[in-house]
Write a structure and sequence with these properties.
By secondary structure, the chain is of the alpha/beta class. It is built from 15 helices and 15 strands. It has two domains: about 230 residues, P-loop containing nucleotide triphosphate hydrolases (Rossmann fold); about 120 residues, 3-Layer(aba) Sandwich (Udp-n-acetylmuramoylalanyl-d-glutamate--2,6- Diaminopimelate Ligase, Chain: A, domain 1). About 0% of the residues have low confidence.
Length: about 375
C-alpha cells in the first residue's frame, strides 16, 4: 500500500477536492487510518492569528480532526506572497514547513493523502510546484483530469511530464465529469493511451450537475450582494435561474430550487405569477424558488419592508432575498461563470463525492 498519496490535477476546477474527499472516505471505510494535508494552499480563511487553506478546513470538519494549520496547511500563498518571496527568498523556508508537517502526520497515520493546488506547475514561482512537493513527500500521484478524449490526453501528457521529470511515481488516473453516455468511449480510448504509458485508469466519474450547483451564500459573494430577508437560509441550493419577466415560459412541474432575478418594482408581480402557475398545476402549497436577487441600485437594504410588499410569501417559503447593484443581465452573467467548490456548507456534496469514488474508482493500485 502506498504510504503517501498526492492528489494532483491537470488544471483548476476538474474535481481534485471531490476525488480527495471520496478517496479519504473509502479508505477510512476499509479501516485505514488516513491523514490529510494541503501542503500548499492559495484560498484561505483566518483563524484568529492563523491562516488555513479552505480545503483543510473542509477536511477537518468532514474527517473530524482537530485542525492544526502548521500540520494540515503548512504553506499559504496568499495575495502578495510571490513578490515577497522573489524579493527575499531566504526568508521563506517552505520545504521545512512541509517536511515538519509530513513528519507529524506520518507518526499518527497509516496513510496520508496530500491534496495538490491548481495545475501541476502552480507554486513554481516559490520553488514549490506540485511535482516538487510530491517528490519531497515521497508520495505517489493520483492524477485527476476532466473528461473528453483528445483534450484529456493532451492535458495528461503535459501534466504527467512534470511529475516524471521529478521522478515521482504515478499510481493512476481518474477521469472526472464525463457525460454518462460517453463513459464507455472515453474509458476505451483514454484507457488505451494510458495503457501505452503503463499507467492505470483508476476510474471514470460521471458528470453530476448537482455538484456544480451553488448555494445562496456563493451567489451573494458572486454578485457582491447584501441580504434583505431570511439570512438564515443562505444554504439553500440553486439549480437554475429564472428572470422575473419570463415566469410564464417556465414549467414548474419539472423545475425546482430556482433563483428569481428581478428588479425591485417587479419582484412581487413575478411572485404573484409564480403563485398563479403553481395553483394552475394543482400544487398551491409548493414554491419552486430557493432564492431571490433584487437587481438595481443596491440601496434596498434599508427600505426592504417598504419596497417588498409580498414578504408573507417569502417568509412562508423560507426564501432568502438579496440585493445587488448589477442589473438582471449582469447578475446572470456573473452567476453563470461561478466555479463551484465543495465547502463546509454543502455536506450533501461531500456525500455525493464519497459515493462517486466508491462506485466508480478501482482502489487496487493504491492498496497493493
Amino acid at each position: 500500500m502506498a504510504r503517501n498519496i498526492y492528489v494532483a490535477a491537470t488544471s483548476q476546477h476538474v474535481g481534485k477536492t471531490t476525488s480527495t474527499l471520496g478517496l479519504v472516505a473509502v479508505l477510512q471505510q476499509k479501516g485505514i487510518n488516513v491523514g490529510y494535508c494541503k501542503p500548499v494552499g492559495q484560498q484561505f480563511v483566518d483563524l484568529g492569528d492563523l491562516r488555513v487553506d479552505k480545503d483543510a478546513l473542509l477536511f477537518a470538519k468532514t474527517m473530524n480532526f482537530e485542525l492544526d494549520p502548521a500540520v494540515h496547511s503548512p504553506v499559504i500563498l496568499g495575495r502578495g506572497a510571490t513578490t515577497e518571496f522573489l524579493d527575499a527568498p531566504h526568508r521563506f523556508d517552505y520545504p521545512t514547513r512541509i517536511r515538519n508537517a509530513a513528519s507529524m502526520l506520518d507518526k499518527s497515520h497509516d496513510l496520508v493523502i496530500y491534496e495538490g493546488t491548481g495545475h501541476p506547475g502552480v507554486g513554481s514561482v516559490v520553488n514549490m510546484s506540485n511535482a516538487r512537493v510530491a517528490g519531497m513527500l515521497n508520495a505517489s500521484v493520483v492524477m485527476v483530469v476532466e473528461g473528453g478524449i483528445g483534450s484529456t490526453i493532451d492535458r495528461l501528457n503535459l501534466s504527467i511530464a512534470l511529475f516524471e521529470k521529478a521522478k515521482v511515481p504515478i499510481i493512476g488516473v481518474i477521469i472526472n465529469k464525463v457525460v454518462p453516455d460517453k463513459i464507455s468511449k472515453v474509458a476505451k480510448y483514454v484507457g488505451k493511451w494510458l495503457e501505452s504509458r503503463r499507467l492505470p485508469l483508476l476510474g471514470v466519474l460521471p458528470y453530476e450537475k448537482s455538484l456544480s450547483n451553488p448555494i445562496m451564500e456563493t451567489i451573494i459573494e458572486t454578485v457582491n450582494g447584501q441580504v434583505l430577508l431570511n439570512e438564515e437560509y443562505l444554504d439553500n441550493r440553486i439549480e437554475g435561474i429564472i428572470a422575473g419577466s419570463l415566469v410564464e415560459t417556465h414549467d414548474f412541474r419539472t423545475e425546482k430550487d430556482l433563483l428569481l432575478v428581478s428588479s425591485g418594482r417587479r419582484v412581487c408581480e413575478a411572485l404573484d405569477a409564480i403563485r398563479e402557475r403553481m395553483e394552475r398545476i394543482n400544487r398551491p402549497e409548493e414554491c419552486p424558488l430557493a432564492g431571490i436577487i433584487i437587481t438595481g441600485d443596491g440601496k434596498l437594504k434599508s427600505q426592504a419592508s417598504d419596497t417588498i410588499n409580498c414578504t408573507e410569501y417569502v417568509y412562508r417559503h423560507r426564501i432568502p432575498v438579496i440585493t445587488t447593484h448589477l442589473d438582471t443581465y449582469g447578475s446572470a452573467v456573473k452567476i453563470s461563470g461561478i466555479e463551484v467548490k465543495i465547502n463546509t456548507r454543502t455536506p450533501w456534496k461531500v456525500a455525493q463525492a464519497n459515493e462517486l469514488i466508491r462506485r466508480h474508482v478501482n482502489l487496487g493500485p493504491i492498496l497493493k
